[in-house]
């Protein structure tokens, strides 16, 4: 019985993590820096959804709108700040993302305070399928994430623009020579990253609750997932999310729950030591 | 007012140790460390627990410094080739890991309650406790300053600078760059631990929530304002950051239209914006 509960909760966590981890992975793959503000875009997306729910929008519509707005904010910040340090190496964008992290996290704190808030959803009776207990919300999260990830994967694989993104990731100079406009690619990647992170934050908040540390608390698991997945690979991020999700849930048999994050850090360090290229070699 | 000035100076001194340490790692050697607060915390807790157990002040400070250095070397050794993007992630993750351990291990460090009643060194005769502590901090900082200046000028400092500029060249003259980088990390972490010991002693109470990532960011901002330069520049810019940080606490008495949580959030937002602005100025196109 316990085993089945942990399995479902591991899969739900994996689904939630895989979107923001894919966002980190995409930025890393194309722009080559770790963006520490991605978890804050999760928080921002969740709070914007709450704000829009206040205008009596249904949750799904509020969430969609909030995710688009978050994507636009990510794009705007990239164009007004990150854009100017593109050629200055890895450090300036990392520092900018740290500054952005502080700004976003405290913007939310300023607006809504430190307390825990909830989305206006009514508790629903869970399904029981072959002994597995899963709530409708959890089922919806897993379904939604699979659809979005498939969309991103197919988009990258089969569209002209997806090819441009992959080309820029593999060899920027060559991509430019063949007519790809890198700034467009960067802009699209940032919008997509903000959007994915926001959806991740919204689904995380529906499973737990909203508070200003919503995203920050999963920063380490997200980076563990993104690195294990081989930076730059969306499929890798999804696989790694399942693996890290299973590890951290089943660690509950031997470790207290407060150490889930610490365990993710150990996974991260171990991956860097043993296989820094990740499980799936990135497409580059 | 004079009490307030003394407090600001003491904080400036405490952050000074941490910034001097970061300047060895980042300014001198070019290693990114986004988790300097981890070593600060190790120093603070080691000092607090030892001195509460009756260990004399100097010995407790010494052990706290050394242990932080050991942690620094360990982090360096567990980061493959000390590549800068890995280092950024590992150091940030490590600092959060340390905070989680401190938060969860009640037997070790009191968990969320922290450690209270950390002693200060005996006061000098004729001086108040605050002034006396300022003098002790200043003396220790002068020593740390002298020490880092020596490092900058001695062969090890030149090697570290050479690593920052071009690692290949250093390797080609037969020096093991990785060993030097590890040493730089050890020294930088030890200095942060020294600052942590003074922090615990000054406040007499420490808890895990004092060791969040914003401390690392204060120090990063200070070293960045000092243009990752000499120890003198680093100390001056640290004093500036400390004055701004502590100075804005004064605003609490004058700004009445926002509550405590909102004011704290505003201060951190300003800090974030300041960091963004500094980076934009420092790395704008056309400048190295």
Automatic annotation (TrEMBL), chain B:
<keyword id="KW-1133">Transmembrane helix</keyword>
<keyword id="KW-0812">Transmembrane</keyword>
<dbReference type="Pfam" id="PF02653">
    <property type="entry name" value="BPD_transp_2"/>
</dbReference>
<keyword id="KW-0472">Membrane</keyword>
<keyword id="KW-1003">Cell membrane</keyword>
<dbReference type="InterPro" id="IPR001851">
    <property type="entry name" value="ABC_transp_permease"/>
</dbReference>
<dbReference type="InterPro" id="IPR043428">
    <property type="entry name" value="LivM-like"/>
</dbReference>
<protein>
    <submittedName>
        <fullName>Uncharacterized protein</fullName>
    </submittedName>
</protein>
<dbReference type="GO" id="GO:0015658">
    <property type="term" value="F:branched-chain amino acid transmembrane transporter activity"/>
</dbReference>
<dbReference type="GO" id="GO:0005886">
    <property type="term" value="C:plasma membrane"/>
</dbReference>
